[in-house]
Structures are given as C-alpha cells and as structure tokens.
Amino acid sequence: MERSFEILAEQFRPMLLTYLTALVRNHSLAEDLTQETLAAAYRSLDTFSQEGNFGSWLRGIARNKVRESARAAMRRPLIVDSRIIEGMEEVYGIFDNPHPNAGSWDERLDLIRGCVGKLSGSLQQAVMLVYGQGHSLLEAAQQLNSSFEAVGQRLSRARVLIKKCVTLQMARARQ
Amino acid sequence: MTENFHNLRVQPPQTDDESLREYGRQLAMDSLLEHVLARPGARCCTVPAAVVVIGVGGFNGWQARQAAMAASAKVAGISGKVEYRRAEHAHAVAAGDVIRPGDGLALGADGQVTLIYPDGSVVQLERNTKVIFGAGQGTRWLGLLSIQAGGKQIALDAGRLTAEVAKQKSGQGMTLLTPNAGVQVVGTKFGLGVAGGETALAVQEGLITMSQATRRLDVGAGKLVVANAFGLETVRTEHRPRDLTPVTVLETPVHLPVELVRDGVAQAVIYVADSSCRASLHPAGNAPLPSRTELTRLVIELVETIRLSTGVSLELVEAPPSANQPAIIIGDCEEARQAGIEASTLPDEGFVVKTAHNRVYLVGSTRKTPASATAWAVADFLERLVGVRWYWAAKYGGRSIPTKRMLSILPAYYRDQPVFPVRQVAAGYGNENGEDAARIERAKSAEPLQRFIELDRLFDAGTHSVSQPQLPLLRAGGSSPYHLEGQQALHARLASVAPRNVEAMFALQADGSRNFNVLCFSAPETFDFLIKGCEQVWDKGGSGLPGITSSSLNLHLPNTIGLACHCQACNATAARLRDDRAELGRLAAEQGERLAGEIVEGRVHGLVVGLFLKRLCEVVKQRWPDKKVIYWPWGADCPEGFSYPDNLAVNLLDFDEMMALMNQPEACSQQEARLRAWSAGTAPVGGTPRGGSAVRCITWHRFGGFNDTLRGPVQYPHALQTFYQRNQDVMAGVRLEAGSQSSWTTAAPTFYVWMRVLWNPELDVDAVLDEMCHRLFGPGAATARELLRQECAQWEGMSRLPRSAFFQKIWPREAVVRMTALRGKALSEMAGDPNARLAFLHWTREFDEFLRTAAAAHQDPELAAGALSDRAGNR
After folding, report:
1. Smallest Cα distance from A66 to chain B, Å
2. Closest-CA residue to B31 (of A162, A122, A71)
3. Contact B199, B226 (CB under 8 A)
4. How many whole angstroms separate alpha carbon B457 and alpha carbon B480?
5. Which one of B149, B380, B398, B480 has the fewest CB atoms closer than 10 angstroms to its CB?
C-alpha cells in the first residue's frame, strides 16, 4: 500500500505543484502545500474510491490545504470562486484520463509541447517568450515590436488552439 | 512557473458564470504551459532572432502618437547608477532624457531617478528598482482592472517608486502592474513597492484602485495595502501584540514599509547619533573600550538579532545616511528633530518610535538618562516591530527571534514611558562557573543557616555573568535621581567614622556607657556631623560620609531591636509612646505582652529617628534644593503625625520575599497599609506620577527566595500584576535581588512578568505566558503551558501561607504527580526539537530537586522516581 502510494504520489507531484502554484501564486508555498497534500492524501487513502479520479481527488485535497493555509495566515485564499475552480478542473481533467503512450501525468503533458509546435510562427513566438522565457506581456511586446494587446490576443488564441489540440489527442488515444 | 501578474490574461469585465469559468480555464492553461515550457530542456520551439527588435514602434496614426507622447516622461533628476533597458541593450540615463513607452529602467544600489510627465505628474524611482514603461492603445481588462487607451503604464518588477499623479483625463489614468497586483490611479499621491512576492501600496492622498485576479479594492488616503499570495489586505498598524504592554499610538504616517532586508540582502544601515556610543561600537585602534551603556548593549543586540533573523548584518555607519538610503536612526539628532521628534520634551525614560519614508527613528528622552531612554526605544522596536522576545539568557534558549528573508517595518508612530521609574535589579547569584557554582552547590546541600550564609557570601561577591547582560533588554535600571546606597551596614559605617571624642553623638546605654556602634539621633552634634558631611560633598566636591552620594543622602534606621539610646532627650521623645497605656494594653491583648513591648519600642525607635530625619530634610531642602534624602526604615512603621518635605524618598526593605504572597488578603493588606502610611508623608521619586498622587515609595524584594527555601516551583505573576496595578499611585518602583540559581531558572517566568509589569502593569499576563510557551517550547508548548499554569495555581491559589507542613499543603501529592507527568510529556513532545528542549530543561532545572523534596515531605519515595535519571544525557 505504502509503496504503491509512493509511486502514485511521485507521478502526480508535478501536477499538484503546478496546480497549487496557480492557486497561491507563490512557488515555495506551493511546494509546502504539495507535500502537505500528499501527506493528507496518504492518511485518508481509505476514503478514495477505486473508481474515482485520483487526480481530481488530489486536487480537492489541495484546495482544502490552500484554505487551511489561508486560515492559518488569517487571510482569504486568492482563488475561492467555485466557477473559477470549475474552469480549472475542466482543463486539468483533460490530463486525468489514461493515455496508451503516456502513463504518467508528466508524460501526458508532453502532448502540450507537441501542440505548441503546431502553432503558427507568431503564436509560437508569443507563447515561448511569455511561458518559456518568463517575460511579462510588456517585455514580450517590446521584443516582438508589437503592442501589449496584440501579444495578449496572440496568447489567448494560442491557448484555445492548444487546449483543442490536446483534448483531441487524448480523445483519439481513448478510441 | 513565474509568478508574474503581468501574465494574467485578458479577462472580460463581467463576472458572470461563464466568464469566471473561462478565467479558470485561462489560469489552468497558464500554469500548464509554464510548467511544460519553462522546464530546463524544454525547447520545442525557439524564438527566431529576427523577432527581437530594438526600439519603440508599432504606433500608427495620430491617436497612437498622442497616446505615446502623453505616456512619455522626462528625466528631471538622477543620481547613482541608472540604465536604460531596451531589448538587449543597456546604456546610462542622463538628465533630460525622454523615457518612452517600451523603455525599461534599472537602478543600481545607489540609483535614484525623478521623472516628470507632460501633465506634471511626478514619479520617483528608488534604489534597486526595475521598471518598464508602456502605453495603452485600447481598453482591455487585466483581472478586474480596466486598462484604458492612452494611459500611462509602468510595470514595476522590483523595488519601489513614489508618485504624485496629476488629475488624469478620462480614459488616460495611470496603471501600474507588479508581479502580483495591478494599481490604477486617476490623480493622487502614493508609494508602491515590490519585494518578496508582495506588493505594498501606500496612499497618501486621493483614491487608488488595487486589483488582483478577481478581487478589487479601493484604497483611500492613509491606507497601506499589501497584495500577496493570499490576496489583498489592508494593513493595520496598531502595534499591540497581546503579550506586550500598551503604547500611546500617535498619528501613523503613510509610506511604504521601510525595507531593512530584502531577499537576504541588506537594504538599510544603522546610524547611532551618540558619538560615545559609536566609539564604543567601533573602538579606534587599541584604545580601551569605553564603558558600555544600555544603549551600546541594545545596539549590539539590534545588529545581532536582525542578523539571526534574516542572515544579514546591517552596517553601522559613522555619518548620517542620505535620504535615499533606508536607515535606522538611533538617538536625538538634527534629522530626528526635523522629523518632529523633540527628545528634550519627552518625559524621563520616555521614547518615540517613528517611521518615515526610508527611515526608522528610535529616540529616547534627553532628560536624566538619555542613553537608557534611547536603549528602551531600541528594545521596544525589536520586540514590537521585529518580534524579538528575551525571556531569559539566549544561551539557555530564552531568546526568541522570528526568522525571515524579508524584514520591512510597517509605518509606526508611538511613544511610551515607564510607570515605575525605579526598576533596579541586583543580579547576583548568576555565575554558574568557578567558585560561585561551588558555593551554590554547597548551599543546596547545607543546613538552612549554612545555606543562607553561603548565599549571602555569593551576594557579596556580586557576580553577574549570567543575568547581567539580560537586564538592559528587560529595561532594568530606571531614572530615579537617587543613588541607593544600602547594601552594607550603612549606619554602623557612619558611626565608625564619627569622632569618638564627641561622646554625645553615641547612644547612651543603660549602664551609662556609650555604644560607639550606634548614633544618638537626638543629639545636635549628630545632626551637625551629617550636615558637615553634606557640605563636604555637595559644596566642596570632596568625598563624604558613608551614604552621601553626589545626588542624595541615604540614612538607615539603626539595625537594633528598639531604641538603643537612653539619653534624656531620647527618653523624653519616647515617653509619649511608652506612656500610652491604652495602646500597650490593646497590643498585649492582640499579640501577647512580650511582643507588645517590642512593637512599642520599635515605634519609639522609628519616632526618634523620624524626628531627626524631618529636621534633616528641612535643612537639606533649604540649603541644597536639588538633593534628595533617602530613608531606609527597614521594617519600621511610619510614625504618625509626621509631614516630611518633598525631598524625601523612602526605601522600604521589609517586603523581602513578601511579594510572593501578595495574592493573600492578609499579607497584602498589611504590606499595603505600611506602604500607604509611608507614602502619605513622603515625596515623589523621579518620573511623573501617573495616578495623580505625588507620593512614592521604593520597595525592596528578593525574588526566587521561596523557590530556594521551599525547593518548589513558586510562580506568582498574576499576584504581581494585581499588586502593582493597585499601588502604582504610591510606588516609585523596586529594587530586586535574586535568590539563588532558581531565580533565573524556575522563577524565570515570574521575573520576566515582574520586569514587564514594572514598565507598565497594564499587561495581559496570561497572554505573556501563552506567548512565552509558544515561542520557546515548540511542539511541547501546550503541555509546558499547562505545567506553568499549574505552578501558578498551586502557589497563587493559597489563601494564606500555611503555618506548618508548608510543602505538603502547597504541593499535595496529586499535584506533584500531575506536574511530573506534564514535565515528562512535554519533554517527550520536544524530543525532536533541541532548542525547545534546551529552553525547557533550563526552566525546569530544579524540578528534580522539587521531586526529591516532595518525596521526603510526603514520605513517598515513589514521587522521586519521576526525576530524570540521566540528567546530563537529557540535556
């Protein structure tokens, strides 16, 4: 039991860290919460249904950890709205499904890399400057000799295309 | 994944269900893309070099050009290192340069830039700041923040800026973006700073909208708001941790937090205005170190605790730092006066803590004790604003310092002063090493009489090594004008230097001979002898008689049982008490005949010396109005019908260990009656009375004494607080003496509260004890607190001191068993925390001795079984 949980935990750790970083916007806090989430998951493993979605279950525990952490700091958590959480779940849920060639969650995320490669040149540039190199929108606009808005629109378009592309690939894999 | 708020994508302004779901999808995609693409080795697609274009462009048409012009700023002032950053290129900025949308600026550690926009808005960038300028070309949404066309935009990546923004045209407001917040300005004065994952906004005038993700906050003038991983929070600057005494909060200034340390790098320096203190901190060459004052001690502690908290040492500078350099300014100086702090008008030992832009001022009163008053400002700053506590010596785990990578001081402005101006501690019995340690051990195993002899020897040795450095941190000392000269047998010393050929000065014994160890206080020759001694010191600057110091004359009641002199004058004075048959009969009925006689003779003794004292005070007041007379009546009652001049203070020594019993009505009322009787006829002792009464007494106590004699954990912090709250109108303070080692170990919580209560008895004692246990005992805090609670309850719960079987009644068998269990449980909870364990073992150092005594007292050897068998190993 312990060993199999360790294996699962290691597979899902990157997903949790990414998810928690999106929720709390603080990498070191997200790391701490990832650890706490996994520890809490192990303690309450008997409450997890074998038919359930393990990734979704972990993210639920993670959200509770965020709330606890905010309470301990006597502050409100940043992301509290259930509709925002629904939107996030919709995207993260895509990667919860099994894929024949991508066993781990991280391997499934490689599909994103492939989908970015299929974008047009201008969209790719914007995506890589902002997400790959960590530039702000203003910096990216400066480098691309473009406006803030134009870069924002390119990124928005790129996200929609990448999501569609990944969803399609996961669906094909299931068929 | 980066944490840049700049990267929050365009979001519809509506907050309907679908918009918020879409925002959630966007957040999720952002996090996944950054996770996948920002990983080392993630190079699925690279940015073609051709797209990296230098310069500004992309503006088409008249509207765009107008927007760009409106969003351009001119460099009006510059100092230090400041660079343009346009794409990959960097070059120095000069005054007169125009900063256009798309430009970036990076300021060095000494950099400062003032920018002026065409509409008169002024933005000042501070040291170590990085910004990028932009201009909107169409309305869009960033979180809930609307960024409008033609507006000024500044992305603040790091550092801080202050701005005074002119009223902006509709749709052209200024927008500032930081890594975790957005700020929109229509016209106002404010400061904005980014550090350690937080954005701080201080609004001085007008109204500013701050936004983060799906939240929005309108921030009005006088507010400081912080945005971080948990959202937006208005910072309240009350500065009243529950475990500290209250201060008088003045109008809090509005500015960004003063950065002392950022990301493990020192941002601020320390400037000490007092040159002698600076010299003692930086002794020149091989010059001997000047004597260290309380201020020097606290400045050293300031540097040390900030280093331990952040890992960074702040530099002590020799000259006043520039306005651009964040600094802690310590003591009265021109800059502090310009900041509105008039040290000369502060009461004795009073101090002010005030912050301003880039400044923390810690200034004490320049009256009487400037070094210690400023030291108290430093101590309060460290406790209240940095979070340090000094419960007992650091080497025994008694110092608590919160660790942090960032240390910024929120806006603050408050003042404080002690309630009791006399807070003296004779810190003997502190040395654990060498001969003193051996004496302590001998004392522990000795018979009662021998034990006290050993302890008294220790006291005479006056060794201070363990506790002495701790005392300034707890603001021991005071501003009393009196130099208390009382440890030695002062009266005997005075008699020993009196001229023996003037026989009338000495007590006449019943057999007609003179007692050359005791003076006669009715003799005019004795009076003249003392007045000449005062002239010798106060008029001629020479050395004088025992007890005469530069500021005061100390007079002790002779330590004899009753009046020792049988001369005609003394007998005549005594007759009115000795002949009061009715009073003698009343006392005999109450106390027995023998004791009644002793009481009357004690009163006679006090009356004769009291009359002498009254005349002495009158002459001293007339001839030396700035000098004081301090009378040490020991246990004598105040003679009735006296009215002394206001230059007299009384040092009551008879309380000894009685303070430990002040929760007992009988003991307390007796002591209070004596205190109030003396105070009714005596003078103010330094400081400014708060209670309205001008009459104060100093009392003298020994703490830790009951711990020694009973060998039990005696705690009475609540009783102390009640006593001082009730009697602050008639008391000037105390002189405290330690018992043996247990004073600094078992009694440490009581001693800590005692020192706090002397500063101000308006204290939440339980909050102090809660915080102490929480900070010191880590995983065992709750259990340790329960043990401390029980120690207090066992002692403070006594309604009167038992006349027999002390130990068994104070600590019944079941209480000993429970306390032993709590000690064991706490230790096991702290097994993995060596710091907590060190502190706990220090506090409970005498606990094994308690158990052995309990076993003997209850005739139950089982009770001793709880002692730590391998004490050394458990340390």
Report:
1. 9
2. A162
3. yes
4. 28
5. B149
In this structure, what are the phi and psi dihedrals at residue B91, rounded to the nearest 5 degrees? -150, 165
Sign of CA dihedral B816, B819, B825, B829: negative
For A163, nearest residue in chain B (alpha carbons): B29
A79 to B27: CB separation less than 8 angstroms, yes or no: yes
Q: How far apart are CA B520 and CA B537, in angstroms?
A: 23
Q: How many of the other CB atoms lie within 10 Å of CB of B871?
A: 11
Is there a contact between B37 and A155 if contact means CB atoms under 8 Å apart?
no
- The sign of the torsion formed by the CA atoms of A58, A64, A70, A73 equals negative
> Which positions in chain A touch B230 (Cβ < 8 Å)?
24, 70, 73, 75-78
| Widest pairwise Cα distance in chain B | 122
Q: What is this model's ipTM?
A: 0.91
Query: Under 8 Å CB-to-CB from B391, ≥6 apart: which residues?
Result: B398, B399, B400, B748, B749, B752, B772, B775, B776, B839
Residue whose pair of structure tokens reads 């790391």 in the numeric block? A31
User: Do A75 and B137 make contact, defined as CB atoms within 8 angstroms?
Assistant: no
List the single residue in B31, B102, B132 with the smallest CB-CB distance to A18: B31
Predicted confidence at residue B43, as pLDDT, reads: 32
- To test the contact with chain B by mutation, choose from A68, A142, A144, A153 the residue with the greatest count of B C-beta atoms within 10 A, namely A142
Find how far residue A149's CA is from the centre of its chain: 25
Supply the pLDDT for residue A165.
92
Calculate mean pLDDT across residues B809-836: 93
- What is the C-alpha to C-alpha distance for residues B872 and B860, in angstroms, rounded to an integer? 25
DSSP state of B10: B
Interface residue of A137, A143, A146 to substitute, partner B, most B CBs within 10 Å? A137
Q: Which residue of A has its CA nearest to B148?
A: A149
pLDDT at B136 over 60: no
Sign of CA dihedral B430, B431, B432, B436: negative
Alpha-carbon B310 to chain mean position: 20
How many Cβ atoms are within 10 Å of B36's Cβ, its own excluded?
23
By C-alpha distance, the chain A residue nearest B59 is A147
pLDDT, tens only, B99-125: 877 778 889 888 999 998 888 889 999
pLDDT, tens digit, 9 for 90 and up, residues B152-178 = 888 888 889 999 988 877 666 788 888
Give yes or no for a contact between B364 and B351, defined as CB atoms under 8 angstroms apart: yes
Alpha carbon distance B263, B406 (integer Å) = 6
Nearest Cβ partner for A87 among B28, B31, B34: B28
Partners of B233 on chain A (C-beta within 8 Å) are 75
Interface of B with A in 189-228 (CB under 8 A): 197, 212-215, 228
- DSSP secondary structure, B465-485, as one string: TTTGGGGGGGT-EE--S----
Instruction: Report chain B's mean pLDDT, rounded to a whole number.
Output: 79
Chain A / chain B CB contacts < 8 angstroms = 214
Give B728-750 pLDDT, tens digit per residue: 888 888 888 776 667 778 889 99
Residues making up chain B, counted from first to last: 875
* One-letter identity of residue B36: V
**Closest C-alpha among B571, B575, B695 to residue B643:** B695
d(CA B781, CA B774): 5
Provide the pLDDT confidence category of residue B707 given band limits of 50, 70 and 90: confident
Residues of B in Cβ contact (< 8 Å) with A150: 58
Closest CA to B143 of B48, B12, B273: B12
CA dist B766 and A134 (Å) reads: 50
| Dist. CA A156–CA A158, nearest whole Å | 5
Q: Could you tell me which of B259, B315, B311 has the C-alpha nearest to residue B128?
A: B259
pTM above 0.90, yes or no: no
Distance from CA of A101 to the nearest CA of B (A): 18
